[in-house]
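Bench notes, afternoon.
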Amino acid sequence: MSEHRKAWTTYIVLRLLFFVVPFAGLYALGLALGFTMKMSGVIAAILAALIGVSLSILLLSKPREEASESVYAWRNRDRTADDVEEDAAIDGEQSAQ
């Protein structure tokens, strides 16, 4: 498996775990406290999303950086010097308008 694919796989799996694990726990807690299934699911989803985002920001800076570098490398894999010059000229024209 290439390094880029490994970076994306790690990042995606951890992001999913940061949502699924709190969701399952909060959903079960909501049911145990007597909430309806729908209410427990809504509350669990909102709180799990907040927890997942927080954990991702705090713990996934390195995998996120590796994933973004892989996007940059993929985007620029076939670019020649002419392509770079052409993009710079287009950007210059657009900023002048």
